[in-house]
Amino acid sequence: MSDYSSDENEGEFVLYRNRPEWRDVTPVKQDDGEEPVVAIDYTEAYEDCYDYFRAVLKTKEVSERALELTQTASYLNPANYTVWQYRREILKGLNKDLNEELDFIQKVILKQSKNYQVWHHRRVLVEWLQDASKEKYLTEAVLAKDAKNYHAWQHRQWVIKTFNLYDGELEYIDTLLSDDVRNNSAWNQRLLLHDKGGLSKNKHVTKFCEELYKSGNHSPFLLAVLVDMCYEQVNEGGGDSVYTLERAKELCSDLMTKYDTVRAKYWQYMIDTIEKKAREGTEDEAGSSTN
Amino acid sequence: MEKKLYLRNILDIRKSKNRTESYPTKSSEEQSDVEDSVLKKYEDLHIKLKINPNLPELLKEQHKKYLLSTIVYLSHAYECLDASRPWLCYWILHPLSLMGVRLDDTRKSHIVKFLGKCQSPSGGFGGGPGQFPHLAATYSAVNALVILGTEEAYNIIDRKKLQEFLLSVRQPDGSFAMHIGGEIDIRGAYCALAVASLTGILTMDLFKDTAEWIVSCQTYEGGFSGCPGMEAHGGYAFCGLSALVILQKGHLCDKQALLRWLVHRQMRLEGGFQGRTNKLVDGCYSFWQGGAFPLLYSLLAKDGNTPQDHLFDERALQEYLLICCQSPTGGLLDKPGKIRDVFHTCYTLSGLSVAQHFLEEIRILGPSKNGIACTHPLYNIRPDIVRKALLYYNNLGTPKQENQTGNM
């Protein structure tokens, strides 16, 4: 164990306290107080590295060795936001080549892809560089391993919106959905590209749903969408829509007793709610006709 | 009033297996595997019931022992949480308090002093001594101190500095960064509102436009995402809803859509909750999703739609937690096959608490000694403990007023 590059070169890891270039620095122990609680039994390498990190933080040292130290510290605990924040201060202070840092954080992200700090570090670098040319590729590499990784999607949405990189997104989503049509993250991304409107007023949607229903499909998700359409239409006064209170009652009863019993109480609640909406609707009408 | 709940019929559970509609994908295959492992747990229990009709039992003594041991010592496997030590305190203290464990004053004082070491000179708390202040660390430290509830615990929070820290991470659009230079998401808004309201330093200036920003995180599915445009997610939905309720602006979100999204996160066979559509059940969402229900009930009641009953299946949730999430040696976990940790122990027991309480009623699956205390859904701390802290800090007044009296 040493730093991220240790996979490639198998050099022996030397504790910071045994490194000649750190001889001038007095390590700073963690101050947990006299009676520590939730105390972690750190490995020797962890404690050694963080003793020096605390020393550097205390003197606000901005140097190549401090930069190297933050690399080890972030490797030992990638969730230590103080380390990453301080590393960014050093990068700025030394005016480092940020493209090198992009390569470095890419390696880290590919290993630690469910971590807030590493993605945030990447985002700050992209902001500083104003160059998002490598971002779609990176998120695709992460999503290839876990197509629902929240951080990767969030980063991807941010670069698409910020740098106007919408081209090709629909095609990319299509490939993900053909791999797994149940990937809800991909569906969410698709919505980023589309307008939203009432379901019950979209003829394509209603036709498709009704045909499915008539073909004998009683998937609870289909029935739930039909209930939503009833709610929408009853709520808006309905008119001659087929999505009525009676239809909602029939669907909810089927859901309660046959297709979705775990949500029985919710479906009863939906009947009550839609009934109440319908009653309010007729009262409004009665009210307006007398005026 | 206490009501005893009974297990679901095993035949019904078997029937609720997910249908892949002859079109299996990665999501449905993973789902089927989990259902198989969960169903096996339920089948096993029905065999054990013939020997011990008192099952399923909450292994309180084991959980207490596990939690108490972690206050003192954590192995190096916890190094990844070295920047979350106030969280560790909260994750341990809260489930202990739900199970009615009282710590002695010396132990309490040790924890207070340690959290004091995590407090930053510039206000707020860091993930450990000497670390930069962070909103999540601040939230968990404040929650832990409120649970400890001693004069020493209340007074260790520098409220004036805390207010300055909150102001330093506030963004012009009303959202909050987790730390100076850190990421911005809905957790920030919730953590800031939770600590500000608990310690009596909430001002409308500090949270101008925050409600509108949060509402922009409600997605077409009905839940909330981490930031506008992203996918609805259980943890973020809890943050969004709680934050709106603290601001007394719950009416700004689409309640009906949120309710629909929430109820559909309860898994048909498992009985527990998933965090997102077509993801797997995880015991921790028992609280993140489950805890949103009582908040939503209060909003629906304002519209005259007071629910007469829980709107999720509290019996199925208790089944999942008691039968699938307990480690026999103490501690609770995500799902069968996973290992215990303090995070899951905290949120599974919090979810159990939500499932056991509906308004003033108590509904318990298994023997009545399975009962645990109620939790305040805004903060996830016992309501009596919340009230005591609110009273204490409200009597102190806002930090500004303190200064004025000091000058007179």
From TrEMBL, chain A:
Its cofactor is Mg(2+). Keywords: Magnesium, Prenyltransferase, Repeat, Transferase. Belongs to the protein prenyltransferase subunit alpha family. GO terms for molecular function: CAAX-protein geranylgeranyltransferase activity; protein farnesyltransferase activity. Its EC number is 2.5.1.58, 2.5.1.59. It is an enzyme of class 2 (transferase). This is Protein farnesyltransferase/geranylgeranyltransferase type-1 subunit alpha. Coiled coil: none annotated. GO terms for cellular component: CAAX-protein geranylgeranyltransferase complex; protein farnesyltransferase complex. It comes from Rhamnusium bicolor.
TrEMBL record, chain B:
The keyword Transmembrane helix does not apply. It comes from the Eukaryota. One of its GO terms (cellular component) is protein farnesyltransferase complex. It holds the Pfam family Prenyltrans. It catalyses: L-cysteinyl-[protein] + (2E,6E)-farnesyl diphosphate = S-(2E,6E)-farnesyl-L-cysteinyl-[protein] + diphosphate. One of its GO terms (biological process) is lipid metabolic process. Its EC number is 2.5.1.58. It is an enzyme of class 2 (transferase). Its cofactor is Zn(2+). Residues 58-381 form the Prenyltransferase alpha-alpha toroid domain. Transmembrane segments: none annotated. InterPro entries: FTB, PGGT1B-like, Prenyltrans, Terpenoid_cyclase/PrenylTrfase. Keywords: Lipid metabolism, Metal-binding, Phosphoprotein, Prenyltransferase, Repeat, Transferase, Zinc. Essential subunit of the farnesyltransferase complex. Catalyzes the transfer of a farnesyl moiety from farnesyl diphosphate to a cysteine at the fourth position from the C-terminus of several proteins having the C-terminal sequence Cys-aliphatic-aliphatic-X. Catalyzes the transfer of a farnesyl moiety from farnesyl diphosphate to a cysteine at the fourth position from the C-terminus of several proteins. The beta subunit is responsible for peptide-binding. Belongs to the protein prenyltransferase subunit beta family. Heterodimer of FNTA and FNTB. This is Protein farnesyltransferase subunit beta. It comes from Rhamnusium bicolor.
